[in-house]
Specification:
alpha/beta, 7-stranded mixed β-sheet, 7 helices, S-adenosyl-L-methionine, SAM-dependent_MTases_sf, Small_mtfrase_dom, transferase, Methyltransferase N6AMT1
Length: 212
């Protein structure tokens, strides 16, 4: 898959949305490595939760031309940036300003992608950030174990993922990926560590999650 151009976004944009970094590129690499499997699913609907600049969902939209590609973000700036990135790269992504999957129809998502806010912070620190003008904190601050948003989405996974759906989730070592895999197993899913990478200061995993 081609890495989308983001030269239309400025330093001012990146004060409000997450700038693509090593975690973004790991997720892109994982999706490209598993592209033959993804294409074999013939996904009708793809969703990226929390797209930030929009490079992941835009890359998928360019490759999966018969798939409706959606993005949801609680940050309205990220929704605007994602639409701009898709347009700038000659494709279309429908961007929806909402929390996680709140506004989506049940059992419709064939391909789900999430690079969550995974940095370990206190919940109090996260709460205090809600009173600032910047939205950028919500792109990385994950609360206790960096799992606050991840665990919230997992509660909705069964209701949102289609029968053939696959979910690619990025996780930090501090997010306890082995525990996540056990939790997913109890929810009726199979999860594996599909790809992993050490980057400066972090060790990252891509979990591939399917129904049993």
């Amino acid at each position: 898959m081609e890495t989308p151009y983001t030269d239309h976004l400025t330093s001012i944009d990146y004060e409000q949305v997450y700038e693509p970094a090593e975690d973004s590129f790991l997720l892109l690499d994982a999706l490209e490595a598993d592209l033959s499997f993804i294409e074999s699913l013939q996904p009708q609907v793809c969703l990226e939760v929390g797209p930030g600049s929009g490079i992941i969902v835009t890359a998928l939209a360019k490759k999966l031309k018969e798939t409706l590609c959606l993005a949801t973000d609680i940050n309205p700036y990220a929704c605007k940036a994602t639409k701009k990135t898709a347009n700038h790269n000659g494709t279309f992504v429908e961007s929806i300003n909402c929390n996680l999957v709140d506004l989506l129809r049940k059992k419709t998502i064939d391909l789900l992608v999430f690079n969550p806010p995974y940095v370990v912070t206190s919940d109090e620190e996260l709460k205090n950030q809600s009173y600032t003008n910047s939205q950028i904190t919500f792109s990385w601050a994950g609360g206790v174990h960096g799992r606050r948003v991840i665990d919230e989405l997992l509660k909705s996974l069964d209701s949102i993922l289609s029968a053939k759906g696959v979910f690619y989730l990025l996780a930090l070592r501090e997010n306890k990926p082995d525990e996540l895999i056990i939790n997913l197993n109890t929810l009726g899913f199979t999860a594996i560590k599909f790809m992993e990478r050490r980057i400066p200061g972090e060790y990252l995993y891509i979990l591939k999650i399917t129904r049993k």
